[in-house]
Design goal:
Distance between the termini: 16 Å
Largest sheet: 4 strands, antiparallel
Helix content: 10-25%
Number of domains: 2
Strand order of the largest sheet: 2-1-7-8
Structural class: alpha+beta
Strand content: 25-35%
Number of strands: 12
Length: about 220
């Protein structure tokens, strides 16, 4: 969600307050909350009564894209930061090798001023490399990440995490010969709005677009 005309970038914060930037805002954010209800069926009787057995851990998932075609550097520079979230961190305060108590760190996800998740562990990461250099260096990756609540969080449970959540940003892969004004005309119907795309993607020279680069296309804001 743009604030003061600026596109708000999503990011993860680790237990040690390290920040992992999302190169592009998620194309999808999904969360779920559930309760457990138990019942003891009785032979010859109708539907049994349910007994509340407590809340289940909340879950959320992200669909992310990382792209380094503009620099030629390996996209693993970014994906490895996510993979590290699944490794045991021996620097955490509760690590004890004698008791075999090591664990990976928890994280929180943030997007703009409206969306902040509970503390969560990284359940799974599916990384798919979709574009390579002529030397075989991976330059683009799709990541499907799943997280589960680490501890009770009554503050988060009382809020509506979808209230004010920004709309997912569209993306566009640059084709040979394309320019920002043409891309702007395609998505906004106005070629003069190319500066919004340039600002959202940190482009200083609008003429230096590299074919294959993935651009975030922010929502049109009429002023």
């Amino acid at each position: 969600m743009p604030v003061n005309g600026q596109l708000q970038k999503a990011f993860l914060t680790t237990e040690k307050n390290e920040r992992i930037e999302c190169m592009f805002n998620p194309s999808k954010f999904t969360f779920s909350m559930s309760n457990r209800w138990d019942a003891e069926p009785v032979a010859g009787a109708g539907a049994p009564s349910k007994k509340y057995s407590g809340a289940q851990s909340g879950k959320f998932s992200l669909s992310l894209v990382f792209d380094t075609t503009s620099t030629g550097a390996s996209v693993t520079t970014h994906t490895n930061k996510l993979l590290k979230l699944m490794e045991i961190d021996t620097s955490l305060t509760d690590y004890d090798p004698q008791r075999n108590s090591g664990r990976p760190p928890w994280v929180t996800f943030h997007w703009g001023t409206s969306l902040h998740t509970f503390k969560a562990i990284t359940l799974s990461l599916d990384v798919t490399f979709t574009y390579f250099s002529s030397e075989g260096t991976p330059l683009r990756a799709n990541v499907e990440a799943s997280f589960e609540q680490f501890e009770a969080d009554q503050v988060w449970a009382r809020q509506n995490p979808t209230s004010g959540t920004p709309n997912p940003q569209r993306t566009h892969q640059v084709l040979p010969g394309e320019t920002l004004d043409r891309i702007s005309a395609r998505y906004y119907g106005d070629s003069t709005r190319w500066r919004a795309i340039a600002a959202a993607n940190g482009i200083g020279d609008p003429l230096a677009l590299v074919p294959g680069r993935l651009l975030a296309i922010p929502d049109r804001i009429d002023t």
